[in-house]
C-alpha cells in the first residue's frame, strides 16, 4: 500500500496526458429479444443475443497486472452480427484477441464495451485475454480499497446490422392533469448507409394492456447512424414513486422497408417528474422525505450476486427504507438499478470519482484531468440513463472541489436536463443542486440550515460511527424544516438494533397522544407517506397491562391520505389493577400485502411496519393476602436469605464495604413486618463515602418492598449509580419474563418499543434496557420491580442485577411471589410433579362470538361430566348416589389464572359483560386433572371513532 501511494504522489507531479480510450460509446442495455413478453420481465439475459462468459478463467499475476485468459469459439454465424465484449473491471483493463490488442479502458467498475469483429477468427478457437492493470492513470480517481480484477462475469452482446444501437427514454408526469409524456430517441446503425427503416414503439400498461402504438420512418443516405424521435402523451397514467412503483413496458422494433422485423429491444420505465422548486426536491409535484441508506457491497470474488442484491432490496423495503445511494463501489451492476425500478427505491447514483489528494496536490484541482472526469460521468449517464429509480446523480464523496468537479457537474447537467446533481464537497457553491453535508451534529445542522439557501438539503453518512447516536435529533430537524428532506443515515447492511432503530425512525406513520382522561384517550394518526393513503396499511390496537398481555384488541378503520392526519378517540376500559400493574395501549401497523408488494414474505415480521405504545390511567386495587403469612413473619428478614433481601453496591466502586450502624424491627399489624437499618459504605481503608438508610417491608400479599435513601459524602463527586443484586435462591431460574426492550439497545429514544417478552433463561445474554419489571423462575417465580424508575437488568445463574438508567439518590424495589397460595420463601422453588397417564379430557368452551358488545352467554362442556338429571325422590336419590361412582366436575376462572380444585364449579351457562380469559379444567378424585382449556372473549371498548381533516384537504 505504501508503495502504491508513493507511486500516486509521484505520478501527479509529472506532466499528464490522457490515454486514448479504444472502447465503444456508453449505451443503455439494448440486448435484442426474441420474445416480446420477455421485455416486461427484462429477461434480456435469456436472449440468444446475450452470452455470458461463465466458466473457468486462467489467471496469471505480474508485477503490474492480473491477466485472465480463456478460449473463445467464434462460430461462423457470428459474421452476421456486431460482436461486443462487455468487461467490468476494478481499476483499468486491456483486451486482447489472439495476442492482438482490441482496446483499453480505465473507467473502473463500469461495463466497458469492445467491438471484436475485426480481430476474431470465425469457425476457429480464439484466445481471449483481459489484462487488469494495478496502477493505471485512472487509479488517481479511485478509492484505494477498490480491488484489482474482474467484477462479475464478462458477456458478449450480438447486434444486428442494421440495428438499434441505443435508446434514450424520457418520461414526464404532470400531477395536476395526471398526464404522462413519453419521449424516445432511438439510434439506428446501418453500415450499408442506404435504405429506409421504420421504428415502431409499443407501450404497455403495468396491467399488461396495450396503451398505444406509434412509429416513424428513418432514411439512410450518407450517414451510418440516424435518430428517430418519437413522443406521445396520455391522460390518467399511473405515476411512479418509491411508494407505488408502477412500470410501463416500452417495446421498440426496427422494421425494414418491407415491414419485416430486424430487431426488437425494450425498456421498463415509470412516469415521474423530478425537479427542484422553491428550495425543495419534488417528485411528481410533492416534496419527498428521503429515508435512505448507502449501498456499496464488494466481495473478494467480485460484487454481490444478483440474488444477494435482490434480498438486500427486499430487506430495505421491509425496513421502511425508500432511498439508496450507490456509494463508494459505484456504479453497481445494472441488475441493482432494475430492482430499484421494480420494487420502488429512490436512487442517488454515484459516479466512480474518488480523486486522490495530498498536501502538495489534489487531482480534482488539476485541469489536465478534466477529460477523465468528464468521460466517467458520460459513461455513468450513458449506461444508466433509462432507470426511473435514479432521481439524482452524485459526483462521489470527495471533499476536494476544483476545476475537474465543476467540469463533471456541467457535463452531467448538459446530458440530463431533468435530474439534479449532488456533490457533497461543494458545500454552498454552484457545483451542486443539493447541499449535502456529511452527517453533522444536530447543533451544527441547525447552524447550517440558518444560512440562506434556495436549495434543498440531504444528509450523508459520516465516517464517525458515533454520529448515529445523534440520529433522533437530526430526524426531528427533518420533520421541522421543509428544506431538510432526510438523507442517507447509515451504510447497508444493517442488523440487529441498528436496523430496528432505523426502521422505527423511517416509519410511514406517526401516532401521538393528544389528550387522555380516566375514561377516554384521543390520538392523532398521521400518514408519513408522500403519495399513498393509509389503505395499504392495517392499524391494530391492543390494550394490555404489564402483567396481562392482552385485555382487548381490534383494528381501527383509519383512512388518511399521504401527509394528512386523523383523530381517533378510544374509550379506556374500567379495570381494577393490581399493585404495580400499569395499563398501556399499543398500536401496531402492518402491511396488507398483495402483488404490488412482492418484498413482503409470509412471516408476521415481514408485514410489520412499526408500533407505538402509550401509558393509560387506571384505578389500582389491593392484592389478596396470603393465608400462611404469620409463620413467615416470625423470621428475621436480614438474616434469612430465603426472603430474597436485595444487596446494594455501586458501579465503579466494587471495593466499598458496608457497615451496619443500627437495626430496628417493627410489626405494625399481624400481616406486616418492617425492618429499618442504617448502613455506611466505606473504602477498604475505612473512609466513609456514602450513608444509606434502608427499610424492608414484608406484606401479607407476598410483596417485599425495599426503600433505599442515599446520602453521598462530599468526597463523592456527582451522583452514584447504585446496583441492586438479588439472589433467586435454590434452583435458579428456567425462564425470564420482562417488560421492556426485547434486545440490547443503545438508542432507546429513537427506536424499539417496550413490550412483554419471555425467553428461556439460558437464551438471554447481555443487558436488557428500559425495564419496568422482570420475573425469574417459572410461572410462579420471583417478580422484581424498581418502582417509578426505569432500569436495566441482567441475569446470570441465580443472580439478578438491576441498575437505574440515571443516577439517583432514592430507590424503591418491589419483590413478590406471583402466587397468592404460596409463601415468599417458596417463590423460587416451585415444581410441577409428574403425573401418570389417564388424564381427563379437557373441557370445551363455546359461545356465539369471540368479540362482543352485548352480554355474552358462555357454555362449558366435557365428555367426562354427565349432564344434570331430573330430581328424584329423596330416598331414591340417596340410594342412587351411594351406589354411583364419584363424578367429575368442571372448575373455571375468568381472570386468566389456572383453575384449581378451589375454583368455581361450573353448573350452568354464565354471562360475560366484560373482556375475560376463560380457563377451565376437569377434576375427578383419584384421577389427574385435565389439561386447561382456554378461550378469550373480547368486549369491544371502542365506542366511537371520529376523523378530522386539515382545512386544505380536498373533499373529493
Mean pLDDT: 79
Q: Please count the beta strands (DSSP E, at least 2 residues each).
A: 60
Question: Whole-number radius of gyration?
Answer: 37 Å
Strand content: 35-45%
Gap between N and C termini, in Å? 65 Å
Task: Produce the secondary structure layout.
Blueprint (H helix, E strand, L loop, with lengths): L1 H11 L24 H5 L8 E3 L5 E4 L3 E10 L7 E9 L1 E6 L2 E6 L5 E5 L8 E10 L15 E2 L4 E5 L3 E12 L4 E11 L5 E10 L5 E11 L4 E11 L12 E8 L5 E9 L4 E4 L2 E4 L2 E2 L2 E5 L3 E2 L2 E2 L2 H13 L4 E4 L7 H10 L2 E5 L19 H15 L5 E5 L8 H13 L5 E2 L19 H8 L7 E3 L11 H10 L3 E8 L4 H10 L3 E8 L3 E8 L9 E9 L6 E4 L9 E7 L4 E2 L5 E9 L12 H4 E9 L2 E2 L8 H4 L14 E4 L6 E13 L2 E11 L5 E12 L3 E10 L9 E6 L7 E6 L14 E6 L7 E4 L1 E5 L4 E5 L4 E6 L2 E6 L5 E8 L26 E3 L4 E2 L3 E6 L12 H10 L5 E5 L10 E2 L4 E3 L3 E8 L9 E7 L17
Amino acid at each position: 500500500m505504501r508503495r502504491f501511494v508513493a507511486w500516486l504522489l509521484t505520478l501527479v507531479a509529472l506532466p499528464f496526458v490522457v490515454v486514448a480510450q479504444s472502447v465503444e460509446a456508453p449505451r443503455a442495455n439494448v440486448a435484442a429479444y426474441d420474445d416480446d413478453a420477455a421485455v416486461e420481465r427484462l429477461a434480456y439475459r435469456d436472449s440468444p443475443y446475450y452470452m455470458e462468459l461463465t466458466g473457468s478463467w486462467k489467471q496469471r499475476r505480474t508485477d503490474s497486472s492480473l491477466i485472465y485468459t480463456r478460449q473463445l469459439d467464434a462460430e461462423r454465424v457470428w459474421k452476421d452480427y456486431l460482436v461486443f465484449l462487455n468487461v467490468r473491471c476494478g481499476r483499468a483493463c486491456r483486451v486482447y484477441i489472439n495476442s492482438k490488442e482490441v482496446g483499453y479502458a480505465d473507467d473502473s467498475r463500469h461495463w466497458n464495451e469492445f467491438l471484436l469483429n475485426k480481430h476474431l477468427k470465425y469457425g476457429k478457437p480464439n484466445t481471449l485475454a483481459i489484462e487488469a492493470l494495478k496502477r493505471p492513470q485512472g487509479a488517481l480517481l479511485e478509492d484505494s480499497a477498490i480491488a484489482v480484477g474482474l467484477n462479475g462475469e464478462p458477456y458478449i452482446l450480438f447486434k444486428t446490422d442494421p440495428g438499434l444501437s441505443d435508446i434514450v427514454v424520457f418520461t414526464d408526469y404532470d400531477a395536476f392533469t395526471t398526464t404522462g409524456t413519453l419521449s424516445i430517441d432511438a439510434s439506428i446503425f446501418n453500415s450499408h448507409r442506404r435504405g429506409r427503416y421504420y421504428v415502431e414503439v409499443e407501450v404497455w400498461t403495468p396491467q399488461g394492456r396495450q396503451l398505444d402504438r406509434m412509429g416513424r420512418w428513418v432514411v439512410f443516405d450518407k450517414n451510418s447512424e440516424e435518430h428517430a424521435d418519437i413522443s406521445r402523451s396520455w391522460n390518467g397514467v399511473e405515476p411512479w414513486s418509491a411508494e407505488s412503483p408502477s412500470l410501463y413496458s416500452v417495446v421498440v422494433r426496427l422494421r425494414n422497408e418491407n415491414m419485416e422485423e430486424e430487431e426488437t429491444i425494450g425498456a421498463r420505465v415509470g412516469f415521474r417528474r423530478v425537479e427542484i422548486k422553491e428550495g425543495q426536491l419534488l417528485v411528481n409535484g410533492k416534496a419527498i422525505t428521503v429515508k435512505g441508506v448507502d449501498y456499496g457491497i464488494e466481495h473478494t470474488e467480485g460484487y454481490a450476486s444478483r440474488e444477494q442484491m435482490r434480498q438486500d432490496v427486499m430487506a430495505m423495503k421491509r425496513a421502511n427504507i425508500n432511498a439508496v445511494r450507490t456509494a463508494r463501489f459505484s456504479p453497481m451492476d445494472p441488475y441493482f438499478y432494475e430492482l430499484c425500478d421494480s420494487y420502488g427505491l429512490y436512487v442517488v447514483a454515484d459516479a466512480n470519482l474518488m480523486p486522490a489528494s495530498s498536501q502538495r496536490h489534489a487531482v480534482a484541482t488539476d485541469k489536465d484531468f478534466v477529460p477523465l472526469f468528464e468521460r466517467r460521468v458520460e459513461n455513468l449517464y450513458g449506461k444508466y440513463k433509462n432507470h426511473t429509480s435514479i432521481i439524482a446523480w452524485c459526483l462521489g464523496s470527495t471533499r476536494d472541489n476544483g476545476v475537474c468537479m465543476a467540469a463533471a457537474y456541467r457535463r452531467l447537467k448538459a446530458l440530463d436536463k431533468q435530474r439534479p446533481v449532488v456533490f457533497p464537497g461543494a458545500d454552498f457553491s454552484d457545483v451542486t443542486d443539493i447541499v449535502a453535508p456529511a452527517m453533522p451534529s444536530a447543533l451544527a445542522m441547525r447552524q447550517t440550515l440558518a444560512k440562506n439557501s434556495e436549495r434543498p438539503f440531504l444528509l450523508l453518512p459520516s465516517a464517525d460511527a458515533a454520529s448515529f447516536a445523534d440520529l433522533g435529533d437530526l430526524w426531528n430537524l427533518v420533520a421541522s424544516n421543509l428544506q431538510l428532506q432526510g438523507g442517507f443515515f447509515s451504510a447497508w447492511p444493517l442488523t440487529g438494533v441498528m436496523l430496528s432503530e432505523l426502521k422505527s425512525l423511517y416509519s410511514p406513520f406517526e401516532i401521538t397522544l393528544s389528550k387522555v382522561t380516566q375514561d377516554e384517550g384521543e390520538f392523532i394518526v398521521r400518514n408519513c407517506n408522500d403519495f399513498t393513503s393509509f389503505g395499504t396499511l392495517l392499524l391494530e390496537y391492543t390494550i394490555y397491562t404489564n402483567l396481562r398481555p392482552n385485555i382487548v384488541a381490534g383494528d381501527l378503520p383509519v383512512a388518511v391520505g399521504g401527509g394528512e392526519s386523523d383523530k381517533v378517540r378510544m374509550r379506556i376500559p374500567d379495570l381494577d389493577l393490581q399493585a404495580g400493574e400499569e395499563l398501556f395501549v399499543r398500536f401496531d401497523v402492518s402491511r396488507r400485502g398483495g402483488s404490488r408488494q412482492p418484498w413482503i414474505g409470509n412471516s408476521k415480521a415481514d408485514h410489520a411496519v412499526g408500533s407505538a405504545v402509550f401509558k393509560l390511567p387506571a384505578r389500582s386495587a389491593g392484592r389478596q393476602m396470603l393465608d400462611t403469612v404469620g409463620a413467615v413473619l416470625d423470621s428475621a428478614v436480614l438474616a434469612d436469605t430465603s426472603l430474597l433481601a436485595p444487596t446494594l453496591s455501586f458501579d465503579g466502586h466494587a471495593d466499598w464495604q458496608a457497615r451496619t450502624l443500627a437495626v430496628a424491627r417493627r410489626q405494625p399489624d399481624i400481616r406486616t413486618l418492617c425492618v429499618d437499618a442504617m448502613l455506611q459504605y466505606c473504602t477498604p481503608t475505612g473512609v466513609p463515602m456514602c450513608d444509606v438508610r434502608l427499610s424492608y417491608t414484608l406484606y401479607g400479599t407476598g410483596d417485599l418492598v425495599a426503600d433505599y435513601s442515599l446520602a453521598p459524602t462530599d468526597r463523592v463527586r456527582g451522583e452514584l449509580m447504585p446496583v441492586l443484586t438479588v439472589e433467586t435462591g435454590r434452583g435458579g431460574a428456567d425462564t425470564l419474563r420482562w417488560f421492556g426492550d426485547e434486545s440490547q439497545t443503545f438508542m432507546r429514544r429513537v427506536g424499539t418499543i417496550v413490550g412483554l417478552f419471555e425467553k428461556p433463561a439460558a437464551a438471554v445474554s447481555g443487558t436488557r434496557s428500559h425495564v419496568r419489571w422482570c420475573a425469574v423462575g417459572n410461572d410462579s417465580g420471583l417478580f422484581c420491580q424498581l418502582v417509578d424508575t426505569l432500569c436495566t437488568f441482567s441475569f446470570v445463574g441465580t443472580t439478578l442485577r438491576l441498575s437505574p438508567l440515571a443516577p439517583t439518590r432514592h430507590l424503591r424495589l418491589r419483590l413478590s411471589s406471583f402466587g397468592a397460595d404460596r409463601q415468599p420463601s417458596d417463590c423460587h422453588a416451585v415444581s410441577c410433579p409428574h403425573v401418570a397417564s389417564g388424564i381427563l379430557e379437557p373441557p370445551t368452551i363455546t359461545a356465539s362470538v369471540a368479540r362482543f358488545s352485548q352480554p355474552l352467554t358462555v357454555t362449558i362442556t366435557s365428555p367426562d361430566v354427565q349432564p344434570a338429571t331430573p330430581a328424584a325422590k329423596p330416598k331414591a336419590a340417596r340410594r342412587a348416589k351411594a351406589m354411583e361412582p364419584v363424578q367429575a366436575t368442571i372448575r373455571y376462572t375468568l381472570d386468566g389464572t389456572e383453575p384449581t380444585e378451589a375454583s368455581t364449579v361450573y353448573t350452568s351457562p354464565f354471562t360475560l359483560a366484560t373482556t375475560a380469559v376463560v380457563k377451565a379444567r376437569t377434576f375427578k378424585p383419584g384421577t389427574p386433572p385435565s389439561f386447561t382449556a382456554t378461550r378469550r372473549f373480547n368486549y369491544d371498548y371502542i365506542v366511537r371513532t371520529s376523523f378530522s381533516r386539515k382545512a386544505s384537504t380536498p373533499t373529493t
